[in-house]
Amino acid sequence: MPFRFSYVCDLLQRLEDNQRAWSGVRTNADIIREWFGTHRGLIAREDQDATPLLSTLLPEKRSDRVYCIKERRLQTIVGRGLGLGRSRIQQLARWTEPGSGVDLAECVESILRETPNPVSVTQRDVTVEDIDELLHDIASGCRFSSPEVRGTYSGLRLTEREADLGDVYKRLSARDAKWLTRLVLKNFAPVVFDPQLIYRNYHPFLPAIIKVQDDLAVAGRILANVQRNRTVTGKADLAEFLKPALGVKIGRQPWIKGRSIKHCLDMSHGRMSCEEKMDGEYCQIHIDLSKGRNCIQIFSKSGKDSTMDRIALHGSIRESLQLGKPSCPIKKGCILEGELLVYSDKDAKILDFHKIRKHVSRSGSFLGTDQDSQRHPWEHLMIVYYDLFMIDDKSLLSVRQSERFKRLKKLITCFPGRSALVKREIIDCDRRAAASDLRRAFAKCIVARGEGLVLKPDDPYFDFDSRRRPYSCCAIKLKKEYVGNFGDIGDFAVVGARYEAAKARTCPIPHLKWTHFYVGCLENKEEVVRFQRKPRFVVTNVVELNQTQLQMFVTHVNPQSVSWEENTAISLRVEPGVDNGKRPSIVFVEPPVFDIRCFSFDKEGNTGFWSPRFPMVNKIHCDRTYHDALSFAELQEIAAKEKEQPPPEDSQELLGWIAALENADPRSAAADMASQSTVLSTEAPNSSSQASIATTGTERPRSRDTRQSPPSSPVTARRPPTPPRPSTAHRLENTTTDMSVARQRRSSEGRKRTAEDPTPFSPGRRKSLRCSLEQTSSIIPATHPDCGPSSGQRAPLSDVKDSSSRRNNDHNFRPRLAGVNSMYQPNLDHDESRGAIIIPASLPSSMSFQEPSSSRATPRLLSATQSVIIPVTAPSPSLPTGSGSCRFLPGQCTLSNISFLLSPCIAGFLWVTEDLLGSHGVDFIRDPVEWKNDAALTQATDTTGVMSKRPRRKKKVVLVDTRRREATTNFLNRIREVGLKRRNGEPNWVPMFDWRVLEDLREEETKCGKRGEKPGSRLTMNHQGSIWRKRWVGLA
């Protein structure tokens, strides 16, 4: 039964009015649900065809229909259809005037409001079936429509079809004519809604049907069949009833952007397939052997049939599936998913994305190739497969991803340069090392100049169960441009702008004159800066601003502008491929500056140069001029470096990206500083007993290390038999002063770098998308032998002997290595007779330091083979030991009765020892031997050195770094060798946690302290809901 077009206009108008309302705004879902409820009786009729109504409500879903009608052409059709004169035509063209605030649809509505169409009693109402048939007829005459639509061409000439469309306008009201205009243009803006709202409200089964067979016409027929036969009663039955059909595109899984490694893992579960994301064009390949030689059909991402456009790929598909051969593994047909790429036999690699347009036509035409080189004989198309949906009438949509890939591997025969399976690795998100594994895989992809990663859960492709887990059956797309500020390029000059009515309608800014902005680079920057020549700009891209940025630009920037024809201030070079040949309507005399980020670089069609791909505006600079922006030569150099051959896998760039990705994760900066710290060496002033001080580059609070360094420590302090000379204190004072100055300088520089450039790029203006470790600090690996390989073996200090009797002689004296970042600086006012820390005058060659070249402390980078040693020449104060006061929960800290044993890999991390443990005021040891003596655990000393009369036993806890498997294994063997025993002689099993539990405890105690709450069960180690449990490693 016919469905009136005015009913659809009722819904669209209500949605637009609701969007404009200032108060009492309702959701789109409520309005759509109410509208479908009103017309349910008509929609649910068995003779009601769903396709015309769905095509009218969702015109963008009809990618098979192309009308070749834009605003100006439609304006002519409407003007002729309504018989408008010259003055009315000018009124109809008001949408082209910047600042008018109206689009073509509203101009049509205004015309028909002033002079409404005459209403005839015998005139039949316009229905959605009438409009759908007319638009289908128009699309059948356009060569860019799908082959199926073109096959229904009725033979009418173009002028006749346009006249029929003009006649429809004569039968519509002003409001309905407005929405017909937007329907023809396939853009209902400013009304935007989720298509799933339409599917769910039309029929509960329709969302599932659309997933399996993503074609409105086919889905409408299936739904009618289900309603007529009543064979399906629920979604469970529907899942068995639905299966893919050859020749009908299957819908795609939901895709989610991963904003960080942590964000990806939060959305993941179980085993994930981590696949390389290919920078090509999506292909869904249908093989129907019943069609003989023409058995291949290819759908693009939009759903359009592009079989003939990609005919150059057919040979690779035939070879990989062995079509037409007795060994062909397919009996009836199959549906596969893959990516189309261009491969060069000469360079033995996959070429850039812009090379595809030379090999793939668009409805028979090669577009945007005027500036490209000709196709070379060594270049050809390649297919990379990554999924299988159906084989021989058996649907695999309900099969897990791992099983589908196994079937795919058996099906495909790979030929180098012609066909391949996607590169992938399996990551178990339930393992503790999942974040480290994913971070390394992502860093490898970045270093190899890959597009990114795709994370796919081991789930069915579609799951129709309403009780499924969140993010199940969803693919996660991870690119470096999605993380932090990794996509930043630099500053670009904004040389011009133009106005687009449809875009202006979506921004509630009155009298808006500019919607699209042309950015470019100076071609003669040196001449302009040195000789004040006339600037020549090359326009590289057109960008749009969001509403906030647009409001800021109009209010605070608002540069002086002239029309394109009147411009004499600057010279503009606009290639035909920029913005599809459109020119800016106005030119800015003094171009403002935008900070641009992008996905990568590409050579757009008909341009011939590198330009940012998918550019976005980060900032609008009001304090910079176009002289500060990138020049055209600099932009081309940046792009060339980005596209150059990737370095070896073991390069420093890989380590830099791993550290940068860890820093980009929420709450991971501290962990990253601990594991990837930059080591600086500050040289002290000239002195007879000078020593270089090596400290971490970030200043940290102090720790409470109450234990002596283990025997394996590089430097062992001893108490001298005679007190040091008074000049020693003076030398240390000068040294400490210079070190404090250097520390403040490093701290301020570090804060500046963090604020200006948190990404792994070089300091100063960002000129490259990739990290360059030649311009950044080196990453120093752990110096302990268990924590990684070292190029040099550390020699023992033969001239330094440890006096085992010093503890018995003076229990107040507990020597430690005091550095500039330590809270235990020597007290110069202390009685020197108590002793001092003496550093030997001669050190082994592997631990030598350079002599200072000047009296000023100068920071220098240590190589990876140099040891981080902090020798001090000063009197030895009495160093306090024992548990101090917790900064977060004084008197109630849950760590006060715990003795921590640190593995060698984290014992040197100041973030762990001084920030995390030090802020809680707790003890820690480095050697499990000290646990064998219970007195060492019950001994408590106050700041004056008086022993407590009531010693108490402390709970033992081992802290390790689970990311360092070999080091952790070696440390566990060391604990096993010690043989810890209980008082009854039984083995003493000690709980072991990852050191990051200290970060979790610190955050929780901070919250409790701010709220004035007592520590709850989440801080109790043995409680079921404790935050300790997620960092549990095992028993040692």
UniProtKB/TrEMBL annotation:
Positions of transmembrane segments: none
The ATP-dependent DNA ligase family profile domain, residue ranges: 383-499
Gene Ontology CC: DNA ligase IV complex
Any GO molecular function: ATP binding
GO terms classed as biological process: DNA recombination; double-strand break repair via nonhomologous end joining; nucleotide-excision repair, DNA gap filling
Region of interest: Disordered: 668-818
Basic and acidic residues composition-biased segments: 746-756, 799-813
Nucleotide-binding recorded as keyword: yes
InterPro entries linked to this entry: DNA_ligase_ATP-dep_cent, DNA_ligase_ATP-dep_N, DNA_ligase_N_sf, LIG4, NA-bd_OB-fold
UniProtKB keywords: ATP-binding, Ligase, Nucleotide-binding, Nucleus
Segments of skewed composition (Polar residues): 674-698
CDD domains listed in its UniProt record: Adenylation_DNA_ligase_Fungal
PANTHER family registered for this protein in UniProt: ATP DEPENDENT DNA LIGASE DOMAIN PROTEIN (AFU_ORTHOLOGUE AFUA_5G02430), DNA LIGASE 4
Sequence similarity: Belongs to the ATP-dependent DNA ligase family.
Name recorded for this polypeptide: ATP-dependent DNA ligase family profile domain-containing protein
Taxonomic source organism: Podospora aff. communis PSN243
